[in-house]
Backbone:
């Protein structure tokens, strides 16, 4: 199978290097791509009929791109993840958004890019990979912001501002999740959110939807958060004059 790489994104270069090291070189030859494929798209074209989109700078155009591929009998696969140079040697954390199960050729490419065969996650339809990455990045950012100080660098804990920033970030994740569910015509079924999310990610038909519903369900704890905030504020020491 021939994989045709198109674009100049830094992550595309790393992905090509990973493929070459796994014995699946991707040709950087735009001449082998079909004429209907826009020249500014970043990713891989598979002559078997798939376009693997890695262009994170134009995510808003995912749906039009999907329709464009469908009009020409090709499947669009949305590939997202943590793009780091270390992935060339150890593999990349890969999130996939696809309406259907990837073809054998596409799966072989994903297996080669991942740390191990099948060590990539199909999150749901197109758009699900981007959503999942944004949630993970938000949660990681939250953890890093509130990581305990090291013994060498003790600092006073500003719990009030810390809680405020955490709540503001959670509100953004909640709105992001509501928009995702609305975009895909899904309801925020809180009753089954925890049960669905308890399944292993690779066994879930729509992992991103389970994640979004869980976040929306947790958003129902807003009243408890507000009560906690009020209680802590009432017992906070008075500021010195």
Residues:
């Amino acid at each position: 199978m021939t994989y045709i790489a198109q674009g100049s994104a830094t992550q595309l270069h790393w992905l090509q290097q990973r493929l070459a090291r796994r014995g699946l070189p991707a040709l950087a030859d735009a001449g082998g791509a079909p004429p209907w494929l826009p020249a500014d798209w970043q990713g891989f074209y598979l002559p078997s009929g798939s376009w693997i989109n890695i262009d994170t700078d134009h995510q808003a155009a995912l749906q039009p791109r999907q329709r464009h591929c469908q009009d020409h009998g090709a499947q669009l696969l949305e590939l997202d993840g943590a793009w780091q140079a270390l992935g060339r040697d150890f593999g990349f954390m890969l999130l996939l958004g696809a309406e259907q199960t990837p073809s054998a050729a596409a799966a072989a490419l994903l297996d080669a890019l991942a740390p191990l065969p099948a060590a990539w996650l199909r999150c749901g339809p197109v758009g699900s990979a981007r959503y999942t990455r944004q949630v993970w990045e938000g949660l990681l950012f939250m953890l890093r912001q509130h990581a305990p100080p090291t013994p060498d660098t003790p600092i006073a804990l500003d719990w009030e501002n810390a809680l405020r920033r955490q709540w503001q970030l959670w509100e953004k994740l909640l709105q992001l999740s509501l928009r995702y569910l609305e975009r895909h015509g899904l309801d925020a079924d809180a009753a089954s959110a925890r049960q669905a999310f308890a399944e292993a990610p690779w066994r879930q038909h729509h992992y991103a939807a389970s994640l979004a519903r869980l976040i929306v369900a947790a958003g129902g704890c807003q009243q408890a958060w507000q009560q906690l905030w009020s209680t802590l504020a009432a017992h906070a020491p008075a500021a010195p004059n």
About this structure: The beta strands are 3-6, 26-27, 43-46, 50-53, 75-82, 93-97, 121-124. The two ends are 74 Å apart (CA to CA).
